[in-house]
Design brief:
Blueprint: H1 3-14, H2 18-24, H3 30-37, E1 45-48, E2 57-61, E3 64-73, E4 77-79, H4 86-101, E5 104-111, E6 119-123, H5 131-139, E7 144-145, E8 151-154, E9 159-160, H6 161-168
Parallel strand pairs: 3-5
Antiparallel strand pairs: 1-2, 2-3, 4-8, 5-6, 6-9, 7-8
Helix pairs in contact: 3-6
Length: about 170
């Protein structure tokens, strides 16, 4: 599966597309599966963003919206300093955009070949969010920083996507 296929997978999950949810919850626990299925009641309209400005998806619903960047790996840690610092630059652009527009920034990390809930959610540490977005932002683990100030995303430290969906659908 290429990167764009994972974008489509997450888009379909957030839109409450049944076929995708059945496939991705096959190896999930009963609780994870139940949490995922809550999206059927409160799905998002999700648009895939063109270009590489640090945003892959825009998810919108009446009560909440967010910008989302998707990363996938067979390894459980992503260093944003790799690939010539491109990931770090993307994250900085996304943080500035989200702070300026008071929009929630979300990073989704898909661990390949993982059984169970293979998606984890993170956010960037930004200011200016209000209301429900501010409360949600506080609950989501933030990207860590290395000694050099570059972001690091450790899959094990993220919020399971099933928990994120459960919280959003309350």
């Amino acid at each position: 599966m290429g990167g764009s296929q994972y974008e489509r997978e997450l888009k379909n999950i957030l839109e409450g597309e049944e076929k995708t949810l059945v496939r991705i919850t096959k190896t999930c626990s009963a609780l994870e599966k139940n949490n995922y299925e809550q999206i059927f009641q409160k799905p998002f309209a999700v648009i895939r963003a063109a270009g590489s400005l640090g945003v892959d998806l825009v998810a919108v619903r009446g009560d909440v919206s967010f910008l989302m960047e998707i990363k996938t790996s067979v390894g459980d840690t992503l260093h944003f300093s790799s690939i010539g610092g491109k990931l770090q630059q993307q994250a900085d652009v996304m943080a500035k955009l989200c702070e300026k527009t008071k929009t929630l920034p979300i990073y989704a990390f898909r661990l390949k070949n993982h059984r169970g809930d293979s998606w984890k959610i993170f956010s960037l540490d930004i200011d200016g969010l209000e209301g429900r977005l501010k409360v949600l932002h506080r609950r989501i683990p933030k990207l860590e920083s290395s000694k050099n100030g570059n972001y690091v995303m450790r899959w094990e430290n993220g919020m399971p996507l099933s928990d994120f969906i459960c919280y959003l659908c309350r």
